[in-house]
Amino acid sequence: MKLLIAIVQDADTPKLVKALMSNKFRVTKLASTGGFLKSGNTTLLIGVEENQIDDVLSIIEEICSSRAIKKGNQEINIGGATIFIMDIDDFKRI
Ligand code: 2BA
């Protein structure tokens, strides 16, 4: 089992969660805040089998687009998604 932790932009979240759910993936949505911009983003926890990772990554890639925003004089490019993939020793639903 793997846990994908995907940090995505709020604007992409409703469409992404809908697409994941309709492909039978289970998702937990957490409200989060980026340390640099100090503005809201969304962290999704997605528990999957190893052979499902590529499917989840394709859905994220299809929906999450990168955007450039202005911070003072700087132009900041926020990625479509930041994704951590972790090994999970065990998983139980009781
Ligand atoms: P923020 O920390 O608000 O960062 C927003 C965007 O600002 C980043 O986009 C990056 O383009 C820029 N940025 C961040 N730190 C910077 C720095 N020290 N100097 C210059 N520019 C900087 P992304 O890299 O796409 O990250 C989007 C969000 O994903 C981040 O929001 C943060 O919430 C999360 N994130 C990214 N990398 C992470 C990491 N290694 N660990 C934990 N969270 C991470």
TrEMBL record:
Do you know which InterPro entries this protein is assigned to? CdAMP_rec, N-reg_PII-like_a/b, N-reg_PII/ATP_PRibTrfase_C
Q: Tell me which domain of life the UniProt entry assigns to the organism this sequence originates from.
A: Bacteria
| Name under which the protein is recorded | Uncharacterized protein YaaQ
The lineage is:
Bacteria, Bacillati, Bacillota, Tissierellia, Tissierellales
